[in-house]
User: What shape does this take?
Amino acid sequence: QVHLVESGGGLVQPGGSLRLSCAASGFTFSTYVMSWYRQAPGKERELVARISSGGGTLNYADSVKGRFTISRDNAKNTVYLQMNSLKVEDTAVYYCKANRIGWRDVYWGQGNQVTVSS
Assistant: This one.
């Protein structure tokens, strides 16, 4: 059974940092592209960052470039999102996603709330 379990969210002041983790099980993690998405109240879910299966290709939304860093540890079946210089507009529920290029299987985590507020 596939599981994606996110952790590391919470409340932080503007300018602060958080690191999200997504621990995967039930599939061959090292063959999947991993992504972080977020959804703010009243808005559509949007891609934040993506990392290729081997970790060599990274993509970021323009709004987080230079502030967020996605990484993965295939030995630990875990993907991370380091978030620095957080802004109020980063407040959202953050989801991790796993998928394989050319395949239909897509898995989502349960979501993790990040709130940036003073």
Summary: The chain has a mean pLDDT of 97.
